[in-house]
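Bench log, entry 3. Co-assembly request; chain sequences pasted below exactly as received.
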Amino acid sequence: GALVYQYPRRTICKSGTSMRMECQAVGFQATSVAWYRQSPQKTFELIALSTVNSAIKYEQNFTQEKFPISHPNLSFSSMTVLNAYLEDRGLYLCGARDTANSDYTFGSGTRLLVI
Amino acid sequence: QQKVQQSPESLTVSEGAMASLNCTFSDGTSNNFRWYRQHSAKGLEVLVSIFSDGEKEEGRFTAHLNRANLHVSLHIREPQPSDSAVYLCAVSPVTSSGQKLVFGQGTILKVYL
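Structure output for the full assembly:
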């Protein structure tokens, strides 16, 4: 079956430092990858959509300068949170799918705590 | 811009009673609707995807879609304590080719014995 492994599961970083999270798709081709953030007491917000061989599209309020994403092949994607501050804490989720008609398969999330 | 609202905010039911969750959306041209479940501090598990008006059943989970009323619901038959989780409604605006999911704020479901 289709699985997405996301790691680390949980991480703590000091304010002003950066952290990187990764997603590995198994059993299907991750043609599209979506990165979401669930801040405390909020629902999931889309950060950006990445499609292999296309430009990464960032949503309003999220930028490449702050959340650089790499999607080098059909099985892997990573996102870095640069210069993290308190407002960046939350659960970051990656979802991947192979075709436009398929559902996203989500990873378990990376919980970021900033201290 | 698509807005998705869920109700109730939280719901407590006894094991075996039907649990019903509601979701309203602002843009009726959206083409995909999904219900997800999120167990504590974990990722998302898709329960039901529905694209046409009417009903779709996946095991104990049944979704009802009524585009005219801008409403999609989820009914959980014979809920069990292990179904206790946050349930999220997600809508894909038609303009994004189904790529972008807009989530509601979630309904916290608690099932007791």
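Residues 47 and 61 of chain A are 8 Å apart (CA to CA). The mean pLDDT of chain A is 93.
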